[in-house]
Design brief:
Elements (H helix, E strand, L loop, with lengths): L1 H23 L5 H37 L2 H7 L4 H44 L10 E2 L5 E9 L2 E10 L5 E15 L4 E13 L17 E9 L1 H4 L13 H16 L3 H38 L4 H23 L9 H4 L2 H19 L1
Antiparallel strand pairs: 1-2, 2-3, 3-4, 4-5, 5-6
Helix pairs in contact: 1-2, 2-4, 2-7, 2-8, 4-7, 6-7, 7-8, 7-10, 8-10
Length: 361
Amino acid sequence: MAVGLFVFVLVAGNAMREVLGLLASGRLGWGLFAYLMAILIPGVIPYALPLGLLFATLLVLGRLSAQSEILAMKAAGLSLWRICAPILLLAVLGTALALIIGFYYAPLADSTYKRTLANVIREDPIRFIQPRTFISEFPGYVIFVDSRDGGQINDVKVWELNEAQMVQKYLTGEYGTFEYDTERDSIILTLFNVKGELRDDDDPEDFSVHPPVANSEKASFKLSLEEILGKRDSSRKLSLMTLDELLALRQDYAAEEQAGDAEGFTKRIEVQSALQKKIAFSFSVFSLCVFAIPLGIKASRSETYANFAIALALAMAYFMLTIVISWVDKQPALRPDLLIWIPNFIFQALGFGLLWRANRH
């Protein structure tokens, strides 16, 4: 239940940041919205697993300790190691599950999510246009559409901006169309029955002289999607690669390194760091759980909110250590692929030390 709670929180956070705006503006249908939310789930499970098991461990052992159940079990001859064995087994299984999802299902789901979200506009460019809304996402242009009728937009206004974001050209069209240009990865906006005005290149805000009028039957604009969606053929990030892809890439860079390529070592360490990050983060399920066992017994808190606060504090401490270590990712000589294991070693050492001490008392 705790894992499900954190999955919901993380999916909702991603939805609010990237998808809800598109849904609210009508650029995204409910069916596609539900699909995007569903494919987000595998990507957040590796993060929800350590948080969920951490919270559940603190809650269960905190209540057992507060109600003297731990004391009763020890009085019956059970060691603390025996009492905690099922929880440790769950932590091991959770680590294995996090490894499988993190290396296979999460990268595929995240890639599908990003590709689907980026292609929403490419597949149906007219969806991006909302009536009576100023559209400023395209660099160098501000667009306003009064109404939309199927694939046609009516009473269109276009402000073309210069590098200083000042209006260089203002045009209005009686109606227009949007089409996607596959070769140039751009939306082509075509206006018909165009009227407008041109501004002075040196001083666009100088209105002492009446600006020249620009009238024509037709005008077209190329609105590049690369600035707002990224390149279609851009190389995949290491975080979106599966285990097989990372191992193959590391082998290629190792071959370059052996061939004398100066960049081979840097590239290999970069891939190896991405590989070790996924493994180390999966082991956070076990590390946080080991630390939570003696802490939950010693804290002896039966309140859900108190255990939730402790779980968040521990998780933030672990993540902060991971973030600090990630600052040396661009310095391969410091071996960031090995340093990434420090948070796990710290939490496991403290956890087993506290567990051994609690078992003696």
